[in-house]
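Raw record, unedited: Putative oligoketide cyclase/dehydratase or lipid transport protein YfjG
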Amino acid sequence: MPARTVSRTVPYSPEQLFDLVVDVEHYPLFVPSWAAARVIKRLPDGGYRTDQILRVGPMREEFITETHVDRPNRIEVVDVKGPFDHLHILWNFTLVPEGACHIDLSVDVQLRSRALRALSSLLAGDSVERLVHAFEERARHVYGPPHPLAQAVARDADTAAARSDRLDG
């Protein structure tokens, strides 16, 4: 699957979004296809190693990742063991006016088996966008409704980005 990148402005702070993304053990509660996640080792940089299970239909894949953090700006996830030739996920969080956060999420994954690659290409269409949406919904659940000014900034930023995408396309 080719690398995918999503940029979105959300009405929560970088610290809030960062805290949700590093809380990997709660992913099964709100991230589609995440069946299990368990931190198995803490790293000196504040990151961690995680054993995770994804389930898509009858398929189940277990893998181990290593996560490196730079609070509240950046989270980087790489594969350690599992069905990947490589896996690299990079989250960047940038403060924008009124307490909103601009998220840049890049996901680059290549699976080893042809069957899994075929499956991932079928599922990959908007999976990165759905992932960001899942975290935005989780933020609403954990932190409550966003501040109206942050919400207006996020809405205006995303409207401007959509307009720019239409002009570029």
